[in-house]
Structure prediction request, 204 residues.
Amino acid sequence: MKWNLNKKEEKIFKCLSTPVKIQDFLNGIPNNFEKNGETCMSPRRVLREKKAHCIEGAMFSASALLYNGKSPLLVHFATNKDEDHVIAVFKKNGLWGAISKSNHSLMRYRDPVYKTIRELCMSYFNEYFMYENGRKTLVGYTKPINLKKFGTNWITREEELWKINDALFDAPHLPIAPKKILKTLRPVDPIEIKITKITDWKKK
Prediction:
């Protein structure tokens, strides 16, 4: 079997044959609130435990893309005093789209309509802000990072995948905008903050 997957895992990966199907699968499993400490679970563990947070969802998406003959590409977002985010990206007809695991509505899937990775990343810019004051926090992004360079053992590992996490965090980031511009950004409106507080899954 491919990557030493069991029959149940193989069946799921075969079904997740398009980015849309992968995104629908991620939306259907709970958010991983890391109740027992920080995790960076492999795709096998995501399937077994039926939960994921953003990087776990991104790595799972990348493995599903790889299983179905696509490149396993991730993009890491760097922020200013906010939580970072990771998305899986794909190309269709020469245009970029993204798969994203998020408990919030606006940080999710992007249809493949973007000519460049920068265009795609900028579609997340206005939605990336602090709840307490509306300050926009997205400051940088990586070029697509191909997980093929890590082999395939990570897909079924039981150990935490901190090596991949650290590689994404430490990769060179391209700036969203000059620092002098980022210092003068208008905060988002209170109504926008209110709307984005709607979540799929509640932390119990």
Remarks:
- The radius of gyration is 17 Å.
- Residues 2-196 form one domain.
